[in-house]
Every structure is written in structure tokens, then in C-alpha cells.
Design a protein that fits this description.
10 helices, binds guanosine-5'-diphosphate-rhamnose, binds NADPH dihydro-nicotinamide-adenine-dinucleotide phosphate, GDP_Man_deHydtase, seven-stranded parallel β-sheet, 362 residues
């Protein structure tokens, strides 16, 4: 039997790494697009690396960028993929306010470039397409919980760019009969999560505070509410969406909501440390626990327009795809804390033996 061929954009990111692993375990030949960087940027997928000099490789990397049409057309022509997973994006909501034009180019027009490549190469009937859409589309929420039919109200340049990506995917499905789907995924985290997203920032800082490598953690809006799942569970859905008889869009979420403050408390509990809350009126709310870890509100992390609350309704995915999330909030926090404690222990060892440790207080 010939092996299925998949192409993943954003293969070096959190989801890209989990998805590549999943597809390889299912017997796929997996191609990934990585960006050229001045330092190695393949940490998350190094365990999957295969020597380019040996035959019959099933994991192959290509240099590329979502802002370069010629590059995308060439790679897709060469690879002739059965499935494309478009995970690449400038994915940080706060940073999108600093780089709005680039974000629109990569996250919005980048999606169009891939769909056009499929069309230009005459692959409409062969290649299935997954678009990494987001709960950020709901922004200023119009309905609770949010489901596939809830109206969108994006609140950042990132979300507006992703809105274009969402609709161009729907349009190419309807106009050209491409099997194209949007996964509207709510926040999903893991030990592989980027260090500047709030969950990883918290687990990493508290683990270091536990070991005396730093004193404080600076955060923005502690009251923001999110529906947090595990990335490993969510990439399974990305694959399932491309295995159906007809292409459809799906909301993927846990249906349970916690605040940023809840996340801090859950991580502190795992590490058995108490928190002292400071700044922006938090003391007045009676949160000062005189603890070891100082969590301080820093307005620099507030966004010009915030998404205060997100809560997903994954009923359609449960019914049509038979999917339920496997990891609970507590299990997720526990795994992230455990992994960050291991790396803090490595830094502690280095420090004890006379080398300067990095200051990760960002
Ligand atoms: P990451 O930020 O971890 O990964 C993003 C990936 O995109 C990285 O491989 C990055 O490369 C790559 N990338 C960025 N810009 C470009 C570009 N111009 N050309 C090519 N590649 C590029 O994101 P996640 O893995 O968390 O998310 C995957 C996708 O899902 C993203 O599109 C994100 O917006 C979306 N999403 C994520 C959710 C989440 O909670 N994680 C929820 C909903 C949607 P490099 O490593 O070089 O930076
Ligand atoms: P989000 O994730 O914006 O939901 O986007 P992030 O973890 O950045 O923020 C979640 C909430 O926490 C608040 N917050 C902070 N956020 C960061 N990054 N740093 C802080 O110090 C901080 N303090 C409080 C934020 O204001 C926000 O309310 C993620 C990304 O993965 C997107 O790509 C994806 O589309 C959505 O999830 C679903």
C-alpha cells in the first residue's frame, strides 16, 4: 500500500511537533516547512530528525515561508501532498499589535497562497487542506458558550488576519470543491508551548522561583478567562477532520473555563509554594498570601483590546468525530510544571557549579 503524504507548515511550532509525531506513528510520509533562522529552531522536532543522506526517509524538512508564493508552489509541486496542515502563523496575539502588517501577510494572505497553489497545480481533487483557525475569532463574545454558528468579532490584528484565513478556506471549498476545513481551536498548551504564552510563562517562572533562581513573575490581565486543553489531544482532531466523507468546520474545546489567576494558583499548588500578589489593585482584593513567589501585575502585558472570556462548546466534534479531550486542566498544569521543574533543576545545577544562569523573568 502506498503511504499517505502530508505537508505541515509551522512544523517547528508546538502543534507542528505533536502533529508530525502523530502522522509518523500512522505511517505517513511527513514533509515540514521550516523557516531559516540564525540559530537552530528545530528543538521541538529534533527527536524526529532523519539523516538526509539515508534512503527511504519519512520525515523531510524544506526551507520556506508563508510570505513567499513561489516557494510554496514549488514545495507543493514537489511533494504532491494528500493532506496539507496549515499551522504556520505569527501566533502571538499581543505581538500582532506590534507587527500588524506582517501578521496579516503571514496569517491571512499566507493561507490564500497555499489554497491558490493547490488550484494552480490542479490538486483540487487530490489535496485535502486543514486551516488552523482560532477561538480568537469570537473575540468580543456574542454567545456563551461559543460554537460553530456563533458570530465572530475579532479583537486583534492576529484575529482579523485569521478571520480572512477562515473565510478564504470556506470560499475555496465552495468555489472550487477543495476538501478544506477550519478547526476552530480554543487555547491548547503543553510542555512544548512557547515561553511567552501565559501558561508556559507561569509554569516556567514558578518552577524557577521554587528553586530560588528568580523571585518574581510579571503578568498582565489576571482575570482573563480561557478554555485550556492539551495540544496533544487537539492535533488528533486536526487529523480526524481531514478523514471524513465531507469537509466541515469544527470547534475544538474542553467546555471548561479558568482564569489566568486560577492557572497561577494551580501551578503554585503543584509546586507547594504560596503566592504574594502585587500591583493594579490585587492587594485590595485580599489576595496577598505573603508567599515565596511574587506575582506582580505589569500593565505592559495588557493588550489594547482584550479578549476577556472564551468558552467553547465541542458538541459537534463529539457527535460527528467521536472525540473527547483526554487531559483535564489539573493534569495539563501538572505535566507543564513537572517538565519546567526538570529544566529549572538543570539550570540550578549549572548555577551551583559556577556558571551564570539566564534571567528568564520576561
Ligand atoms: P507556534 O507559535 O508554536 O508555532 C507557529 C509555527 O509557525 C512555528 O513553526 C513558526 O516557525 C511558524 N511560522 C511563523 N511564521 C511563519 C512564516 N511566515 N512562514 C512559515 N512559518 C512560520 O503556534 P502553535 O503551534 O501553538 O499553533 C499552531 C497554529 O494554530 C497557529 O496557526 C496558531 O495561530 C493556531 N492556533 C493555536 C492555538 C493554541 O492555543 N496553540 C489555538 C488556535 C489556533 P518558527 O519556529 O520559526 O517561529
Ligand atoms: P491567547 O494566549 O492570547 O489566548 O492566544 P496567551 O497565553 O498569550 O494569553 C491568554 C490570556 O492571558 C492574558 N495574560 C497574559 N498573556 C501573556 N502572553 N503574557 C502575560 O504576561 C499575560 N498576563 C495575562 C492575556 O491577556 C490573555 O487574555 C493563544 C495563541 O496560541 C493564539 O495563537 C491562539 O489563536 C489562541 O490562544 C486561541
Amino acid at each position: 500500500m502506498t503511504k499517505k503524504v502530508a505537508l505541515i507548515t509551522g512544523v517547528t511550532g508546538q502543534d507542528g511537533a505533536y502533529l508530525a509525531e502523530l502522522l509518523l506513528s500512522k505511517g505517513y510520509i511527513v514533509h515540514g516547512i521550516k523557516r531559516r533562522a540564525s540559530l537552530f529552531n528545530t528543538d521541538r522536532i529534533d527527536h524526529l530528525y532523519q539523516d538526509p543522506h539515508v534512503d527511504n526517509k519519512n520525515f523531510i524538512l524544506h526551507y520556506g515561508d508563508l510570505t513567499d508564493s513561489t516557494n510554496l508552489i514549488r514545495i507543493i509541486q514537489q511533494v504532491q501532498p494528500d493532506e496539507i496542515y496549515n499551522l504556520a502563523a505569527m501566533s502571538h496575539v499581543a505581538v500582532s499589535f506590534e507587527t500588524p502588517e506582517y501578521t496579516a501577510n503571514a496569517d491571512g494572505i499566507g493561507t490564500l497562497r497555499i489554497l491558490e497553489a493547490i488550484r494552480i497545480l490542479g490538486l483540487e481533487k487530490k489535496t485535502r487542506f486543514y486551516q488552523a483557525s482560532t477561538s480568537e475569532l469570537y473575540g468580543l463574545v456574542q454567545e456563551v458558550p461559543q460554537k460553530e454558528t456563533t458570530p465572530f468579532y475579532p479583537r486583534s490584528p492576529y484575529a482579523v488576519a485569521k478571520l480572512y484565513g477562515y473565510w478564504i478556506t470556506v470560499n475555496y471549498r465552495e468555489a472550487y470543491g477543495i476538501y478544506a476545513c477550519n478547526g476552530v481551536l480554543f487555547n491548547h498548551e503543553s510542555p512544548l508551548r512557547g515561553e511567552t504564552f501565559v501558561t508556559r510563562k507561569i509554569t516556567r517562572a514558578l518552577a524557577r522561583i521554587k528553586l530560588g533562581l528568580q523571585d518574581s513573575l510579571y503578568l498582565g490581565n489576571l482575570d482573563a478567562l480561557r478554555d485550556w486543553g492539551h495540544a496533544k489531544d487537539y492535533v488528533e482532531m486536526q487529523w480526524l477532520m481531514l478523514q471524513q466523507d465531507h469537509p466541515e468546520d469544527f470547534v475544538i474545546a474542553t467546555g471548561v473555563q479558568y482564569s489566568v489567576r486560577d492557572f497561577v494558583n494551580a501551578a503554585a499548588k503543584e509546586l507547594d509554594i504560596a503566592i504574594t500578589w502585587k500591583g493594579e489593585g490585587v492587594e485590595e482584593k485580599g489576595y496577598d498570601a505573603n508567599g515565596k513567589a511574587i506575582v506582580q501585575v505589569d500593565p505592559r502585558y495588557f493588550r489594547p483590546t482584550e479578549v476577556e472570556t472564551l468558552l467553547g462548546d465541542p458538541t459537534k466534534a463529539k457527535q460527528k468525530l467521536g472525540w473527547t479531550p483526554k487531559t483535564t486542566f489539573q493534569e495539563l498544569v501538572s505535566e507543564m510544571v513537572r517538565e519546567d521543574l526538570k529544566s529549572a533543576q538543570r539550570d540550578e545545577l549549572v548555577k551551583k557549579h559556577g556558571f551564570a544562569a539566564y534571567d528568564y523573568n520576561e
